[in-house]
Amino acid sequence: MADLGNVLLYSLFPLSIYTTLVALAAGITKRQGLLVAARRGAYSVFAVTTLSVLSLVYLLVTSDFSIEYVASNTNQSLPLFYKIVALWAGHNGSLLLWTWIITIFVGIVAYQNRHKNNDLMPYVIFVMAGTTVFFSVLNVFISNPFDTLYQDLGNTLQEFAVQDGRGLNPLLQHPAMIIHPPVLFIGYVGTVVPFAFAIAALITGKLGAGWIHTTRRWALTTWGFLAAGIVLGGKWAYVELGWGGYWAWDPVENASLLPWLTATAYLHSVMIQERKGMLKVWNMALVIATYLLAVFGTFLTRSGIVSSVHAFANSGLGPAFAVFLTTATLFSVGLLLYRRKDLKPDEEMQSLVSRESGFLFNNLLFLLATIAVLWGTLFPVISELFTGDQITVGPPWFNNIMIPIGLALLLLTGVGPLLAWRHTSTETLKRSFGWPILGSFIFVLVLLGFGVNDGWAIGSFAISFFVTWTIVVEFIKGAGVRRKNSGENFFKALYMLSRKNTRRYGGYIIHLAIVLMFMGFTGNAFNSETRAEVGEGDTFTLDSYSFKTLAINSAETENYSSQSLELEMSKKGKVVDTLHPERRYYFASEQPSTEVDIYSTMREDIYIVLSGASNDGEKVIVQVYRNPFVKFVWIGAWLLVFGTLFAMVPNLRESKAGGQA
Amino acid sequence: MNNRIKFIIGSVVIILAVIVLAVQGMQEDTSMSYSKTVSELKLLGDRARAMNLKISGDLKKGSIVRNNMDLDFVITEGNSELQIHYIGSDPIPDTFNNEMDAEVVVSGKLVDGGVFNAERIQAKCASKYEADYSSN
Fold first, then answer.
1. Is A245 on the interface with B (CB under 8 A)?
2. In whole numbers, what is the pLDDT of chain A averaged over residues?
3. What is the dihedral of CA A16, A22, A27, A28, to 10 degrees?
4. Is the ipTM of this complex over 0.85?
């Protein structure tokens, strides 16, 4: 099976090269037959990769420990489910997952467009298959998951199998970690589709709205998956890493944020192009940047160029990535410059107070956020280049820049959608914003009355309040008008209103989701924590909570040994819950793992870590964090996914003739 | 005034504001740290005293001494050695022990007597596993 998998994987390399070249030939000669051949090539690329993935899954499930990847990431007693997901637990396997997702997308795009976009498709397949060639090189020649274990016998190498594997990293044995990589990868890889169409449009000179329409759903899907993937990563870090937070501006986290920032900018600025024919070059640039940043993120994670807690160790992929990234950058930027004269705007901007300028400032802020995160992430490399010292910038630096930018963007979320295209009169401004602004001021006074004294937090809450108000008013006003005209009841009117313009109202839902997430982020301003060394019967407190140790237990399973704590938590004298933080030691991987216990309410999370035993072994050390509003982040993320799906639903058309519509 | 100019002025103000934030953040002592290996640290001499440092080296086997909440150990690189004294608040699990083969990164400051006061310890085991023993 390993040989079969390897043969299939090896065949991906020539097949993807063949597909790339045939697609290019189809584009140059404009011969239909060649396009058909390229399409078949795309399908076959998908087929061999899928079979290769299935072979690896078979090897993982049957625990073939002659394969290095299987031996390093699984062991006999690992539950079947984890054996399967070990496919993306290690570097080589997760890289194969990457390649597989590209080939799935190549297949889907080729099939979706088999009867349309005949002028663009040759180059679309050319770009996507070309990207596949690069990843197949990595998978086949540098990081092959089918590599067997070798043993050095003097002057010959001999294959051998180990008795049992090293097991799956316990940190990865968590539901959020299991879906985080595929979701994030779909987001990363999805950026190739709008990119491929943009490049095809640049090459063919068919720069109309065609490529934008074809890729609208792809862009939105990619964006939603990236967002969900980033939040899942945060959720995983929160429940699994045991340091009480979900985001630390780690290089790997930043790598996933970068393409999301430019993709978000694109989703906004593309509306100006559709509506006004402006910003054509800029939109192309954003699509190109998003793709390059997605590849760059993978490079950052896997090359070991910047050290990070959860990066893969240096895997020898660096030079290959550098070559590919440089080539792709030169190629796409060159094309864009070559076509820039054909991308003249149809209109000029008319007023500073208009929807257009709202979008422009939105884009400027997203661009600055991208540059800032990129700068901070690469600072160790940049500083070493210029000063010889490798300097790392920490979370305070990122927060110092990103909090103001984030709040400015949040404010635009409330303001932008209410500004009219072209120009908004002072009268309209007063009507739209008078009450929300007044309401927000009163809200600030209430916060001050409650003793909230953190300036950024007050600003964030006030802006959130303002934005929520403006969005809710949009829904209510729209539904009210519709109710008057159609006689439907309010909720039916609300539903019909949203269904008739899913993009607009889906967008509002996403904006509300972002508000919820910002509330969650702002909770960080009010965190508190304590730590205690306790034995059975001991008590300690954190703010209004008190804790009592009921018991310290030890247990052992096939997979790990564990120590856990029964901790009774009371608030103002009343028992709330009993919590069970635990720490484990996994035998196969010889790794420790903390299993935190979280008591979660809308108001706050009580996050409890059993971090170790005291030296005499009699007592244990407990770390307790009180994190307000964390739940808003997760709820916001769910709402964001819902809003994204909603925005993709086709608009409802009402037939005027009545009848079956 | 022309709209284009208004927009450009607005943009320039925003860009300058972000640059100010970036530069200001770089001056904050707490947010910057220098990454060095043990031998590079020795070359720095007295200059090292003023810096926030991240030092990487191999854990010297058998050098870990635990005494109540105190933790001391030595990291090495080639012929250079560095004595580490842990002053962080997060407890270091007992899996950080004298049996492990690990590359260690410590964050903190160099103090008198050439001892390094570490606020944070990260260990990278010989296998692929990496552990971060303390936050921030």
1. yes
2. 87
3. 130
4. no
